């Protein structure tokens, strides 16, 4: 008798979507437009993630292949925001192999027209709620010193979760082969959500 085929990627994706769905599908306090749907990325979203990163003119634009691959292999630690069926923002991350209690946020970006409406924060809260169920209690990311919007975003998420946020220099400009700015390491912990109100 042959065993049924089990698609583990589909199971992971469905777990993410359930966790995200538990948050509700609309943004909170700052909602000013159409509903924002939060869900796990699919391979077909990779092109859109690449476009959003490129249009941001702030993020390093990785190859389109990197985003497509990410949507396949790291969907469980990534979230996209969709408005009227179009992906308008994303956060991509991974669990650090050396620190299984830590999610590293590699990139987060929101389309310019969607910025300032709470979508970036909603993406991070969704990610933290999802990985929290897998035992993750810390978030790491790196931010260049001139990125005020990103510093404000992570600071806001830390505050809403009543977590500590610390900053240390990580990558000096000298480690990069090009004109890349230095990157500071931000650590937010503990990331467990205390109440539903923390999302507002
Ligand atoms: C950073 C980014 C993702 C924020 O997304 P967003 O949807 O506009 O953020 P939100 O509306 O959820 O705002 C979250 C918090 O950050 C603050 N914030 C957002 N943009 C800000 C800005 N330009 N200046 C100051 N504060 C800002 C908001 O006031 C809010 O704080 P509050 O909750 O205390 O009021 C978005 O600006 C972006 O895509 N930037 C380009 C890419 C980038 O820099 N990514 C991060 C690289 S590490």
TrEMBL record:
What is any one GO biological process for this UniProt entry? ectoine biosynthetic process
InterPro entries from the xrefs? Acyl_CoA_acyltransferase (IPR016181), Ectoine_EctA (IPR012772), GNAT_dom (IPR000182)
Tell me where on the tree of life, at the top rank, the source sits.
Bacteria
| EC number(s) on file | 2.3.1.178
Residue ranges that the Swiss-Prot or TrEMBL entry lists as coiled coil: none
**What Pfam families does UniProt report for this protein, alphabetically?**
Acetyltransf_1
Presence of keyword Acyltransferase: yes
Q: Which Gene3D superfamilies match?
A: 3.40.630.30
- Sorted alphabetically, which PANTHER family does this protein's record hold? L-2,4-DIAMINOBUTYRIC ACID ACETYLTRANSFERASE, N-ACETYLTRANSFERASE
Give the similarity note: Belongs to the acetyltransferase family. EctA subfamily.
Q: What is this protein called?
A: L-2,4-diaminobutyric acid acetyltransferase
Origin organism of this chain?
Nocardia tenerifensis
From the broadest rank down, the organism's phylogenetic lineage runs: Bacteria, Bacillati, Actinomycetota, Actinomycetes, Mycobacteriales
């Amino acid at each position: 008798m042959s065993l049924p085929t089990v698609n583990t990627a589909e199971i992971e994706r469905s777990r993410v979507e359930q966790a995200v769905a538990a948050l509700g599908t609309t943004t909170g306090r700052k909602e000013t437009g159409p509903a924002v749907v939060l869900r796990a990325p699919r391979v077909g979203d990779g092109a859109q993630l690449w476009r959003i990163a490129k249009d941001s003119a702030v993020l390093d634009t990785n190859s389109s292949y990197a985003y497509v691959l990410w949507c396949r292999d790291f969907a469980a630690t990534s979230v996209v925001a969709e408005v009227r069926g179009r992906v308008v923002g994303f956060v991509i991350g991974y669990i650090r192999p050396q620190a299984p209690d830590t999610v590293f946020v590699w990139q987060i970006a929101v389309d310019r027209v969607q910025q300032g409406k709470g979508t970036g924060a909603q993406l991070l809260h969704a990610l933290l709620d999802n990985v929290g169920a897998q035992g993750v209690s810390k978030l790491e990311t790196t931010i260049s010193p001139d990125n005020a919007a990103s510093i404000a975003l992570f600071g806001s998420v830390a505050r809403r979760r009543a977590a500590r946020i610390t900053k240390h220099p990580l990558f000096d400009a000298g480690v990069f082969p090009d004109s890349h700015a230095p990157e500071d390491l931000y650590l937010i912990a503990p990331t467990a959500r205390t109440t539903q109100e923390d999302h507002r």
